[in-house]
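> call design_seq(struct)
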């Protein structure tokens, strides 16, 4: 142990240390090139003097390097990403800012669960603020459920991620529920629609890209089939009216349907997804194929 100087004899209050660590995101402080940790009693009057500083400890759950890029991809695809967490507001804002979820300069709002619950009694105020809410800290499972319900009432398509047993109600309430395959509980997996085997947010972006690709492929397939078959029917009908017989023989129609039609439709239906699918807004939920 190394004796501290006179300026380090008095330790900071635990609340002040917590806020400082949260705001500066666990900034490393060192003495003699050592990592430091601080501990302090909850009451200032309990602080002793002539103490020996052992160090200051900060525990951080590092953000995966691919998460900020995945969040930006969601924004480009017209998807609003919100973070609902049980952490305190300072920690939540710091993490959300690093991930690219929270942008207070553009009007993004971060609030705590109790304040959100107060707004549930004033739906008009909540609806005005709802598009700007990006982070809810000190959030309870009931807060998550109420947010999902309100978003769906306003016509939004909502996807929810969760891993705990208390996440099951909102996973079932959402249009699409994503459960964690590694850290998720069996209850959460049963309540979800999709299980992320790698517990990675980037997998959600891939799911969105593949989902849009499947939708577009079905559209192309149906449009091609309708075009070919309607054209064949019109030719056969008009020919039968004008010449008394169809200009297309049975073998010709069979060739169109089995060879040309099938191969071309399969080519359209099996087209792989591209990154361009994420550079447009999503289709409306009630849009027809």
């Amino acid at each position: 142990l190394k004796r501290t100087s006179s300026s380090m004899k008095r330790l900071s209050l635990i609340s002040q240390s917590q806020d400082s660590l949260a705001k500066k995101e666990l900034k490393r402080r060192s003495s003699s090139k050592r990592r430091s940790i601080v501990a302090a009693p909850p009451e200032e009057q309990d602080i002793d003097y002539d103490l020996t500083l052992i160090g200051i400890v900060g525990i951080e759950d590092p953000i995966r390097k691919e998460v900020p890029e995945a969040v930006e991809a969601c924004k480009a695809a017209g998807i609003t990403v919100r973070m609902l967490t049980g952490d305190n507001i300072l920690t939540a804002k710091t993490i959300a800012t690093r991930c690219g979820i929270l942008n207070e300069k553009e009007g993004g709002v971060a609030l705590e669960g109790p304040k959100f619950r107060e707004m549930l009694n004033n739906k008009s105020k909540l609806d005005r603020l709802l598009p700007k809410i990006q982070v809810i800290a000190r959030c309870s499972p009931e807060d998550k459920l109420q947010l999902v319900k309100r978003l769906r009432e306003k016509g939004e398509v909502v996807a929810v991620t969760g891993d705990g047993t208390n996440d099951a109600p909102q996973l079932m309430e959402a249009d699409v529920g994503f459960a964690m395959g590694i850290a998720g509980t069996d209850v959460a997996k049963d309540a979800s629609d999709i299980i992320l085997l790698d517990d990675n947010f980037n997998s959600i972006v891939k799911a969105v890209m593949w989902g849009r690709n499947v939708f577009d492929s079905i559209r192309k397939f149906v449009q091609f089939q309708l075009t070919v078959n309607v054209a064949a029917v019109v030719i056969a009908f008009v020919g039968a009216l004008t010449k008394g017989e169809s200009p297309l023989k049975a073998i010709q129609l069979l060739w169109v349907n089995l060879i040309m039609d099938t191969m071309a439709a399969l080519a359209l239906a099996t087209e792989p997804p591209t990154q361009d699918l994420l550079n447009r807004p999503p289709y409306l939920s009630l849009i027809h194929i």
